[in-house]
Amino acid sequence: MKNKYKIAIMISIIIFIVYFGQKDDRVEYVEKLLIPIGVGYDIKFRLGENVIYDVPINHYRFQVNKPPTTDVKTGTGESLIEARSSRQVKSDKKFFLGLERVYILSEEVAMYGIKDIVEGIFNTSIISDLGLVTVCKGKAIDIFEYPVKGGSSPSEYIEGLIKNLKYAYFFDDDYKMTDIFVRIFSEGRKVILPYIEAKEEGIEVTGVAVFKEDKMVLKLDLNETKILNMLKSDNTQGEITIRYNPVNYVSFSADAKRKVKVNKENNKYNFKIDLNIGATIEYDESKNEVFGSLENEKIFKEKAEEQIEKECKDFIRKMQTEYKLDLLELGRVAAAKYGRRTGVDWDDVVSNSNIDVKVNVKVIKGGRGNF
């Protein structure tokens, strides 16, 4: 058994030496390569349904005995393949694909449709489908050329920005290209992506871009995004402030867990969303401190549940009457119970369904100042 193991190792080593010992332009020193870390998608020109794409790439450039630098190269073409070729003929080194960290869609591209982009990445095995995806205001190339403080590249900064969203506003962490692919082609799902803007203080997330199938149709600000995320996602984190009046308030860190139940009566769907929130009190500026007595804690709990339920129901009402979209992916829950591929328009069904929200707040603990 040991001899067979040794033989297998020797064969692997021989294959490695033969393969990489041959002259092959697929094997290069890193100094001879450009390493893309961010890819952007802009529309250079549009006439009806015909477009010409600009595809900027934020890449590393390595040099001997020097620290790596970052730069941007842009390709242009009627298709994404043409844009890739156009970019290469303007570059003195070969682009080494497969390490892309972020994909930035301009709002114009997002509204035009992203199906071709998503499918193109999945059909090209050498391009990473694990990069994080976001929508930007203006042009993607302007984001890549924005001077980021601290010396990191815009792509690295945006990657960190999106990865750490899960600690605020109840964002989840399903923004990889592979997640987008699944949502576009799955029944009852919605593509919802972080929306970024370049402002005076830097690049920041200002809300989310909402898609119907593969086209962006709506942008929500952070206030609505917070409520949407609480109602749509499970096991998320954020901060909530409960105001008794303009002066007195309690702020707390919250862990939110969501459960959805559905039943169907007389061909009408009824959804019930149970939202369980664990509260860690951070700032208590109320007249009757939460930890002052059990009665005060009960008053806070009732006030918090009342306020959060109202905000959730107001959002759902707006979602059903104004947006007319199933932003909470309730269609996915109903399809799992009553059958998929029935031709149902879940946006229409959910907009005309009964949706109830029940909030339960449990005080877990207080901050160091609450004792």
Automatic annotation (TrEMBL):
Span of domain Spore germination GerAC-like C-terminal: 206-366
Subcellular compartments: Membrane
Domain of life from the UniProt record: Bacteria
Main location: membrane
Keywords recorded for this protein, A-Z: Germination, Lipoprotein, Membrane, Palmitate, Signal, Transmembrane, Transmembrane helix
Signal peptide positions (record): none
Membrane-crossing segments per the record: 7-22
Xref: PANTHER family: SPORE GERMINATION PROTEIN B3
Family: Belongs to the GerABKC lipoprotein family.
Name of the featured protein: Ger(X)C family spore germination protein
Source organism (scientific name): Clostridium mobile
